[in-house]
Amino acid sequence: MERRQFLRVCAASAAAGATPALAAPDATPRFYARVRLVDAGGARLRAATVPVRRNLLFHYPFATTPCFLLNLGRPPKASARLRTADQRAYEWQGGVGPQRAIVAYSAICAHQLTYPTRDISFISFRGERSARNPHADVIHCCSEHSQYDPAEGGRVVAGPAPQPLAAILLEHDARSDELFAVGTLGGEMFNQFFAKFEFRLALENGGAARRAVEGQATVMPLENYCRQQVQC
Ligand code: FES
Fold first, then answer.
1. Which one of 9, 38, 69, 117 has the fewest CB atoms closer than 10 angstroms to its CB?
2. 192 lines ligand 1 (CB under 6 A)
3. Which ranges in the chain belong to alpha helices (H)?
4. Is residue 6 part of a domain?
């Protein structure tokens, strides 16, 4: 814009009493306890042993909030610029481990909070396309078909979800090859999740719906946690 034109715009704004809209502050990482990921036998999970393109589940940062751990088997985008539903910007910076291909996301759908329970899961990573899923390699929620790209920070690629899945921040110890969860990035849905399901979660977990995970979190194949997986 030329200087004269810029001054005209400023003068018009001043005359109209306009005040510039303030941008929402960026979404910053939220750190919780640093938790070691272990397998079902309690052994430390090594990045080199995480199977490729397989749904793995753990709970973090609360004992009742499920997360997917995925080895994409290829390098994801180096970074992705994303926004929460309330327009807070943030930058997801890829995965960890070999090829930076190991990523983690909250498994609580950003649309209406569908999540994997012990009985059934409507949401999971799908490597293949299907009639209801035109995209391969996405996290797909069968409730209303929101789809998220785990190679781009959980970006919404289809469906009604108003924001990406919240990313779980991982650390990889290059010397020991161990993996740790340390926090979240993006639009957490935990408050809404507890508000909607707290009674059920408390019943299922002896009243400890909001117990924070400390020390270690057990990673298991989704099919070992959940009796039925809905495919769509
Ligand atoms: S709850 Fe997942 S798409 Fe609606």
1. 9
2. no
3. 3-15, 190-204, 222-225
4. no
Nearest CA to ligand 1 atom 1: 112
Taking 50 as the threshold, does the pLDDT of residue 5 lie above it? no
pLDDT digits (tens, 9 = 90+) for 107-116: 999 999 999 9
Q: Residue 216 belongs to what domain range? A: 24-229
Inside any domain, residue 167: yes
Mean pLDDT of the chain: 90
DSSP characters over 74-134: S---S-EEEE-TT--EEEE---BSGGG-EEEEE-S-TTT-----SSEESEEEESS-BTTB-
**Domain of residue 183, CATH code:** 2.102.10.10
Percent share of the chain, pLDDT over 90: 78
Distance 210 CA to ligand 1 centre (A): 23
How far is ligand 1, taken at its centre, from the CA of residue 68, in Å? 16
Structural tokens at position 169: 């921040």
Angle at 158 between CA 76 and CA 63, to 5 degrees: 70
Interval between CA 226 and ligand 1 midpoint (Å):
18
User: Residue 12 Cα, ligand 1 centroid: separation in angstroms?
Assistant: 45
Identify whether 4 is part of a domain. Answer: no
What's the domain count of the chain? 1
For residue 75, being part of any structural domain is answered with yes
Is 155 a pocket residue for ligand 1 (Cβ < 6 Å)? no
